[in-house]
Amino acid sequence: MRIGILGLGRIGAFHAETLSGLDAVESLVVSDPFADAAKAAAERFGAQVADSPEALLAAGVDGVVVAAATDAHPHLITACVEAGVPVFCEKPVARTMTEGVEVLKAVAGRDVPVQIGYNRRFDAGFVAAHAAVRAGELGTLHTVRSTTLDPAPPPAAYIAASGGIFRDCSVHDFDIIRWVTGREVTEVYAVGGNRGADFIKEAGDADTTGAVLTLDDGTIAVVSNSRHNGRGYDVRMEIHGFADSIAVGLEDKLPLRSVEPGVTFPAGVPHDFFMDRFTDAYRAELTAFTEVVAGSRTSPCTIADALEAGWIAEACTLSLHEHRPVTLEEVRQA
């Protein structure tokens, strides 16, 4: 098949490399506002260059991967759907929930699949956890703990435009909690602090946060996030039930050091970058998209799925600012 890529920054170029190595992909068409980025990708992967999204859609593509700036996501998703071309778009659907809901309405009723990029759904550990929970191996769940700790914050300009740590970082935890447990969040309580980079506080954001989520069956989920984790990039999940407990991310590259006598685990070099931690997951995610394009599977992460994680982020942001519990119903009605 012939796949188009809109946006060739860090993640777009990474996706181009991944797609070029998939057996199902015969050729690529690439486009970026910066001509040099498109030219470099074309030379590296033998891709055709299109000078605009419209030209790319007219180039006979079977599917499109959107890795452009967030502000462009709504227009590009709807343009692809209106052209009848299946689309994969990195999260978020849009910068605001209002815009995201409008995108959902715009594509409703059209028989064109849209897949939103939440790569943890394709990580082997999270897939195994999802299967274990759905098979009832843990019995009734009572506690979930989800962690995302970055080794260092992104640049100040990124932070200022990110929408805040809950919308930018924690949203991955929110999505994977929903996916693994199969439950919805009903209420949140969030806290945050600033112990590191001043530019994060100046942007009105927190660099370290914690959130307690109440799920609709009474399960408690605890989410921990930070922009500062000196030992590396730490993504983990624990799922505890009355019959058993399991964990994702407890492997030799875990960026955590045990001080127990005689314990040598973990023994590997810690993960220090999200692309390192999730290389295989990204490949599986884009492989899934080729299956969506081929019509052999439905979208594994729809716009509606992505918006549900977004509503949790909105509730946590409000909770942090107002120092109180917030229900999901409250933010939906705001």
Your description of this structure?
- By secondary structure, this protein is an alpha/beta fold.
- Helix content is 40%, strand content 21%.
- It has helices at 10-20, 35-45, 53-57, 73-82, 97-107, 124-134, 156-161, 165-181, 198-202, 274-277, 279-294, 303-322, 328-333; strands at 2-6, 27-31, 48-49, 63-66, 87-90, 114-117, 141-149, 185-193, 208-215, 220-226, 234-241, 245-248, 326-327.
- The chain has a seven-stranded mixed β-sheet with strand order 12-11-7-10-9-8-13. A six-stranded parallel β-sheet has the order 3-2-1-4-5-6, with helices on both faces.
- Helix 4 (73-82) runs parallel beside helix 5, helix 6 packs across helix 8 (165-181) and helix 8 packs across helix 12 (303-322).
- It is globular.
- It starts with a strand and ends with a helix.
